[in-house]
Amino acid sequence: MAKPEHEFFPASTVPFTPCEGKVASLTERILASDSPGVATRILRFEPGTDTAPNGVQVHDFWEEVYILDGSFTDSRLGKTFKAGDYACRPPGMEHGPWTSEEGCTTFEVRYRAS
């Protein structure tokens, strides 16, 4: 299955839905999706979000993340990342959990490399 073809459209027409896991204040707007986990999405941390109940994240796909607004703190690293920061995570890389006092919005592209 391949991601669907989309010409420009207002991303705001795609609703935010709860993310998989145990944190209700973490929601996603799936813009395009392929196989499970592989997607282009906007991820939203509401103010006060703590993703500790979801634990450390590890997955079998590549993930590129750009912070659009706000900030979050990686609890394991003790580092805060803010708007304009970028990460590229290969399969198997541990990351998180995070807290976000002010809230945060990220743009993410997740994919499998052959």
Explained architecture:
The protein is an all-beta fold. The chain has one domain: Jelly Rolls, CATH 2.60.120. The protein has no helices and nine strands. Strands 1, 2, 3, 4, 5, 6, 7, 8 and 9 form a nine-stranded antiparallel β-sheet that branches. It starts with 16 loop residues before the first strand and ends with a strand. The relative contact order is 0.25. The mean pLDDT is 94.
Which terms summarize this structure?
114 residues; mainly beta; Jelly Rolls; 9-stranded antiparallel beta sheet; 0% helix
Give the CA-based shape: globular
SSE succession: EEEEEEEEE
User: Total number of helical segments?
Assistant: 0
CATH topology: Jelly Rolls
CATH fourth-tier homologous superfamily:
Jelly Rolls
Q: What is the CATH architecture assignment?
A: Sandwich
| Spatial extent as radius of gyration | 14 Å
Sheet bearing the most strands, described? 9 strands, antiparallel
Helix/strand structural class: mainly beta
Could you estimate the helical fraction of the residues in percent?
Answer: under 10%
At the first level of CATH, the class is: Mainly Beta
Give the averaged pLDDT, no decimals. 94
Poorly predicted sequence stretches spanning 5 or more consecutive residues:
none
Number of strands: 9
Termini gap = 15 Å
Q: Which range does the strand content fall in?
A: 35-45%
Number of domains: 1
Pfam families: Cupin_7
Protein name: Cupin
Domain ChrR-like cupin: 28-107
